[in-house]
Amino acid sequence: MKKIIITIAILFSFVIGEEIQITTWNIANFGETKLDNQEAMDKVLEVLSDDHVICLQEINQVVDVRGDSRNSAEILKDRLAQKTGLEWRLTLSDETGEGGKKERYAFLWRAGLGNLVNSEIVEFTHPDLQTERGYFVTDFNFRGEDIKIVSLHAKASGRVAERKLQWEEIANNLSNLPQETRIFVVGDLNMEHNRSFERNFSPLLDIGLKTSLDRGQLTTLRKNRIIDGSHLAKQVDYIFAKNVEIKNPKVEDFVLEFFQDQLGEIDIEKANQVSDHLPISLKIDIPNDFPPTFKMATWRVRRFSSSSRDENELFTIKSIVQKYDFIALQDVRDQEVIERLVEKLKLSRKEYDFEVKLPYAFLWNKEFITQQQAARFTSSGSFQRRPVFSSFKAGNFDFVVLTHHTTTRSLTATKEEIRQLPTVFREVQNQFPNEKDIILTGCFNRAPRFSEWEELLGTGDMFAAFRRPVDISTVGTNISDRDVVDNFFFDLNEVTEQEVELGVDKFDEQIFANDDRTASKEVSGNRPCFVEFSTKDND
């Protein structure tokens, strides 16, 4: 591939993503009744919306909430996504316990933090231990580091010596792990943090686990009345951690935040409708092992459908797409061809995720890029093919991609769609008031030197990545080299101080030896063009 490069100094605004918050919460019989309680659910979502990893106990079985027949944790995940505007992942344990003590555990995390390696319920096996439930073990990989989280709702009765057998069995299972493994043991352990703490929890402490909370940080609510001015009862919820620096450990007292009036009166009964336990949390640092830069491409692949491309042609397209970590595709005719392409991309040892919004598709390297919000069509303006947009995060870089393929019905119609792009750009800006890194890209069928682009290019300090006359004046984004019809646009007022590499991929010369007819038939008459952005820099 002959690559034509321009270097421009620009800056994107970034969000530091090294610190994550882990929370554990006995959410108290979380099922149909609570999901139907709008006030209680509003508080649950408010409490959890700032978390990154959530470990829940007391999840009920499948429920039917207004016709939605799923497990309560699955419904919670969807509502949390609506509340935060972020994508969440969920792993749900098998049922554990007997009789009225049956429950499930749930583990939720923000998409992009890492991959779930394994999760399983482990039942206690000690012959002298009459337990009510097993414990939920999850193995996670956070950006190259292995993390194990054990979540437990321990039995609430019995002698201390018997209950210590639970910690001994868990400790024995954890002691065989590599010494450097980050370990968390969390949950409602139903044993108070008192003067006998070190003796009672010695099996966990002896393998190097440390508790996040000091004695006296109570975690449960009184049931129906305030005693001696306190709405809190016991300290039985814990986060034990090993091989981590514990930051900002806290008990999140939602009672004082949501159920105390201006006179200081607390509605303890309503608070208990949320849960009779308070969530506890801590923050930890995770590594930034994502690459320092990534390549974002845009490409109109001619009439890209499963029926129009055989295996050899699709393999050629795969060999081009695999050069890029993120790509916006235009002229996509069905989802099947994208699914086939993603399967072939696995041969390049890259794992891609994708979303199709016909006639567009987004593909991204899911090792370090995550989709923050699902793709949506714009509503303003009149277009043959309505533009689509979605938000993403690559390393520390949050950005929104807006892509469009203009009509070719007539030159007049093409120009009119281009004149409407400033309105569409502002619409997307209004959808993301706190996100300034909005990138417009696509196949526009007109170069930015023409007058119909004047309003967009006059917005702030709008930058067109490819235009003539510039240093790449001998290169077009179509294989005939006639003109620049594919492009990137972004506002340099929001984008400064970052080295960016621009390029046009002349696959037609490298793969097809300038046989434009074959290149257009098998692949496309348009070339991918790309911009290379940083993932590391901060605001």
Descriptive labels:
single chain, 539 residues, alpha+beta, Deoxyribonuclease I, Chain A, seven-stranded mixed β-sheet, six-stranded mixed β-sheet, 22% helix, elongated
Topology:
Blueprint: E1 7-9, E2 19-30, H1 32-35, H2 38-48, E3 53-59, E4 62-65, E5 68-71, H3 72-84, E6 88-92, E7 104-110, E8 115-122, E9 135-142, E10 145-153, H4 160-174, E11 182-188, H5 197-200, H6 202-205, E12 210-211, E13 237-242, E14 247-251, H7 254-258, H8 268-274, E15 280-285, E16 293-304, H9 311-321, E17 326-332, H10 335-345, E18 352-357, E19 360-365, E20 369-377, E21 388-394, E22 397-405, H11 411-431, E23 438-443, H12 454-457, E24 462-464, E25 486-491, E26 499-504, H13 507-510, H14 516-522, E27 529-534
Parallel strand pairs: 2-3, 10-11, 16-17, 22-23
Antiparallel strand pairs: 1-26, 2-15, 3-7, 4-5, 6-7, 8-9, 9-10, 11-13, 12-13, 14-15, 16-27, 17-19, 18-19, 20-21, 21-22, 23-25, 24-25, 26-27
Helix pairs in contact: 2-8, 9-10
GO biological process, one term: DNA catabolic process
GO molecular function, one term: DNA nuclease activity
Domain Endonuclease/exonuclease/phosphatase: 24-277
CATH class categorisation of the largest domain: Alpha Beta
The major beta sheet can be summarized as: 7 strands, mixed
Q: How are the strands of the biggest sheet laid out side by side?
A: 1-26-27-16-17-19-18
What distance lies between the first and last C-alpha atoms, to the nearest angstrom?
A: 34 Å
Number of domains: 2
Strand content: 25-35%
Taking pLDDT < 50 over at least 5 consecutive residues as the criterion, the unreliable ranges are 1-17, 469-474
The radius of gyration computed from the alpha-carbon positions, rounded to a whole number of angstroms, is 28 Å
Individual helix count: 14
Backbone shape: elongated
Strand segment count: 27
CATH architecture term of the largest domain: 4-Layer Sandwich
| Fourth-tier CATH superfamily name of the largest domain | Endonuclease/exonuclease/phosphatase
- Mean of all residue-level pLDDT scores: 88
Q: Pairing-aware structural class of the strands and helices?
A: alpha+beta
CATH fold naming of the largest domain? Deoxyribonuclease I, Chain A
